[in-house]
Amino acid sequence: MKLKLNLIMAGLICAGHVQADAIIGDSLSKHMLTPKPTYDVIVSFDEHADIDSVLRPLAVPYLGLQTLPMAGATLTRVQIEQLKENPAVVSVYANSPLEYYNYESGEITGGHYVQDQYGVTGEGSVIAVLDSGVDGTHPDLTFGDTVIENVKIVGDLDLTGGNTTFIEGVPNSDTSSGHGTHVAGTVAGSGAASANDERRAFYHDGIAPGAKLVGLGAGEGLNILFGLQGFDYAITNQERLEIDIITNSWGGGDGMEFDPNNPINQASFEAYKRGMVVSFAASNSGPEEDTLNQYAIAPWVINVAAGTKDKELADFSSRGVADHPEKLPDITAPGAAITSTRAVNTAIGAMGPVVDPAHPDYYLYYHTISGTSMATPFVAGTAALMLSVNPDLSPDQIESIIKETADPMSYLPHEVGAGYINVLAAIDKANETQGERAQFLAGDTQWASQGEWTMVDDNDPRLTYVGDWEHGRSSQASGGEYREVDDDEGTILASVRGDRIRLHFLVTDDDDSDVRVVSNGKTIGSARVQSANASEENPQQVTVAFTGLGDELVNQVEIHAGDEDILFDAMEIDGDLMESDVTYTEVTTTEEGTMGPSAENLEVQEFVFETTEADINVDAELSWTGVADLDFYLLNAAGETVASSASLGNPEKLSYWLEQPGTYTLQVSGYISAVTPFTVTRTITTASK
């Protein structure tokens, strides 16, 4: 199954659509301000099959992933600009270095009551540890027992698509760092090296010692490409290895805004959508605010802050921003002074070895460090315990339960999230919760690929109702109103950009009704709409989800009512709802000019045009003859730049979805010019019924 990206397109044309330029990541844009021969990048494609056909003709070293439609490559500025205009390319981001998150010193807390009194140890759960590697020769992390697979990730770029090598069956994949071994022990270390401790048998075991581990080792030099390769392996082998959880104690770009199109966020969303719980470390840049790991603030991952043994917030734990919808941790977990498994002869393994006179051999097997890196696997292990008692829980339910059962802390939400994790309360609630994993895997996820779902009310004029639909009112309806149709007599037509929808219905009795969805002439599936507790006095909201609507730019969706009355309330789309019964026409205008002598955009020429309510998109191209470098900008009525193309290429192209009608200006500036004749071609797309 390929990763389907639902991006907000800049243009939409009916027959042969206008493709917006690919997204260039902010970090890469900044890097490109400093001239370099080449740039290391991550290229995301609409289809996996496009990787070789697009990159191989460039004769550059690149490395395609196995499942995700992405590749690492080394490109020149001109090649990046070429890819930006390629309709098969979704985005180009810098392959930036990442950091493992760790600090110093202590001993793990929490969870032993669940192990000792309930006998819940995480048995049946599998956690992938994407980190520096795992030392499977450690007695607590025995390869072939606790560690069921240990992978060393080796990847090289080359001219034919690269060579990703996942070396499986490696006893010790953590030979230089030691970070991943400590993380792995916190999740599921067996405690075998401390089995006979008089204080408690298996004294230094992990929070879920009965769980199994898959080590994904990227070594010390982690970067975005290695991170993507780790996710790619976990997604590709999810079913074979039965991976339930991916824990990530690394990141970068602290304080950046949430970017759903970032390749790491795309990868973590694909893992989440496939039913894996994904945890990320909040980062160790506290106590300053707005310092959260950019990958931890993706709404579908569990963002973990670090706490102390007395349930205070660790000083080093990164903080978010007050009242920001995304910049806050989800939960705080033990992360200060955590004792876990030690990989000897490694850089981090040399830090804080345990000195216990009563157990001198612990010096070889355990060490104590601190960080959100240590808190994150604790949460991953807690998720494993929850799945042990209730394997039908969805990733959304696991995060929700962890947050709902947290102990309050005397801090603000953007500092600690929901509070300090309470493992016992989380297990109790998980045990009594009805799992919704099947619905989740059918597409009924809390989060869409861009974060929030697009909500469409039943009164939206872009929906077409076929049949005898009647209006109804209810305080339980999302907008106070709904549409009702009698037995098997109604259809709703919708033009959907995206491949997933969630349909909301009101149920007023205990009778079953059904709904069937057809997309592009093909039946996608059907679902029962029912609620045992519903009545006229107590109507219930019921949501059913459908995925796999199709790969068309706009999917023509039909929602068919079944053999009982049905009350339609609203639709959510992982994408957007488009106008139906619309014809798109294009009008092209060509203008010419001559740029005189100019340097660094000193000379500017402008071409003003008007747009109407019916105009939806403008595409423009600037071309010239001779040796020059001209730049191209689109300004709105307020004089703000809303689109630009300022590369070294000829022609320069830009595309813009018109948000409002009015006066726009195409601006040509001479970055380098003697006397340069140029041509501006402008195409306006108009929608009409």
From TrEMBL:
Enzyme active site: D131, H179, S373
PROSITE patterns in UniProt: SUBTILASE, SUBTILASE_ASP, SUBTILASE_HIS, SUBTILASE_SER
Domain Peptidase S8/S53: 122-419
Highest rank taxon of the organism: Bacteria
Alphabetically ordered keywords of this record: Hydrolase, Protease, Serine protease, Signal
Signal sequence segment: 1-20
Family of the protein in this entry: Belongs to the peptidase S8 family.
Protein's name according to its UniProt entry: S8 family serine peptidase
